[in-house]
Design brief:
single chain, 84 residues, alpha+beta, Metal Transport, Frataxin, Chain A, 3-stranded antiparallel sheet, two-stranded antiparallel sheet, 39% helix, 24% strand
């Protein structure tokens, strides 16, 4: 995991929850952690990491992830035992 991935991980776990994290940075973080990512229907993204599975909605047309999605990513990473 490089410095940019660590910075994104810290942003995901920041309180209050930030709403301006680019989705591509979150996907890059998940891949750096070893997650398996596959495309679902439409803009859904399936992620599996350390035996934990989740489906996220890739934001569009904007590039930034909303607060609810960041909370979901935080919950997923916590369950997969990935914390800053």
């Amino acid at each position: 995991m490089n410095a940019k991935h660590r910075k994104t991980l810290e942003a995901v776990f920041t309180d209050p929850v930030p709403a301006a994290i680019p989705w591509r940075d979150i996907e890059a973080l998940l891949m750096a952690c070893g997650a398996e990512i596959s495309e679902g229907q439409g803009s859904h993204v399936r992620v599996a990491l350390n035996g934990v599975r989740a489906t996220f909605h890739r934001p569009h047309p904007q590039k930034e992830t909303d607060k609810g999605a960041v909370k979901s990513v935080r919950r997923f990473l916590t369950e997969a035992e990935v914390t800053p």
